[in-house]
Automatic annotation (TrEMBL):
Gene3D superfamilies: GntR ligand-binding domain-like, Winged helix-like DNA-binding domain superfamily/Winged helix DNA-binding domain. One of its GO terms (molecular function) is DNA-binding transcription factor activity. Pfam families: FCD, GntR. SUPFAM superfamilies: GntR ligand-binding domain-like, Winged helix' DNA-binding domain. This is GntR family transcriptional regulator. Residues 17-84 form the HTH gntR-type domain. InterPro entries: GntR_C, TF_FadR/GntR_C, Tscrpt_reg_HTH_GntR, WH-like_DNA-bd_sf, WH_DNA-bd_sf. It comes from the Bacteria. Residues 218-240 are annotated as: Disordered. Keywords: DNA-binding, Transcription, Transcription regulation.
Length: 240
């Protein structure tokens, strides 16, 4: 694995935190943002240099990431960023839609003026990021928006369940964030308006449709890349 093109992470490791935890969090962040993309070979020594630590905390971090399904450890070959199947993605995004649809419904019932203004503030951040093509901020702002809707809903169990899938949702959202673009934030605006007028069923329907569009676009993007890869492989075979 070459770490060319991966941002230097000096400062990413906070020394007072146990190194194995810091290495784990740093690598997880790089995986979620797809700076370490699915299928990438992860070499302990190169990661240790990248993070400014020894190989031991990197090895422990990779083991934990393997246990959590972010990394695949292949005997004799090494560690690789997990490549999610379409079935995995579909299952997660379906669960996300169920959780966030209920979050939107409850948020519309519970939201006060300050909650609505908080959502509009996040919306403005997201739109500005789309306009400046700052993909990292777009992905983060999207996660913040959805998390805030769940917080406004006021159901602690729902919030805990949503938190369990949030990081993987960010991972799946990253490839389609630019494609979804402003349309996603237009949908967010419609949700805020429904929440502000306490239209519980309207907010739920908007969230359900919004999540389903993201799910379908993810599959279209994956299918398109697979077709491109197959076409490239076919062209190489023909040239032999």
């Amino acid at each position: 694995m070459s770490t060319d093109g991966v941002r230097r992470t000096a400062g990413l490791i906070d020394r007072p935190v146990p190194l194995r935890q810091a290495a784990y969090q740093a690598l997880l962040d790089l995986i979620i943002t797809r700076e370490l993309e699915p299928g990438r070979h992860l070499v302990e020594q190169e990661l240790a240099v990248l993070l400014g630590v020894s190989r031991q905390p990197v090895r422990e971090a990779l083991q934990r990431l393997n246990n959590e399904g972010w990394v695949d450890l292949r005997p004799g070959y090494g560690a690789f960023v997990h490549v999610p199947s379409e079935s995995e993605a579909d299952q997660l995004l379906t669960v996300r839609a169920l959780l966030e649809t209920e979050s939107a419904r409850l948020a519309a019932r519970e939201a006060g003026p300050d909650d609505v203004e908080r959502l509009w503030g996040l919306w403005r951040v997201g739109v500005a990021a789309v306009d400046s093509d700052d993909l990292d901020v777009v992905v983060t702002a999207n996660a913040d928006f959805h998390r805030t809707v769940t917080e406004v809903a006021g159901n602690q169990v729902l919030a805990e369940l949503a938190a369990q899938v949030e990081r993987r949702v960010r991972w799946y959202y990253a490839p389609v964030a630019r494609i979804r673009g402003r349309a996603s934030w237009d949908e967010h605006a419609s949700m805020i308006e429904a929440i502000a007028r306490h239209d519980a069923e309207g907010a739920a329907e908007l969230m359900r449709d919004h999540a389903d569009r993201t799910r379908r676009m993810y599959h279209e993007e994956v299918d398109g890349k697979q077709a491109e890869s197959a076409q490239a492989d076919s062209g190489q075979d023909a040239g032999k």
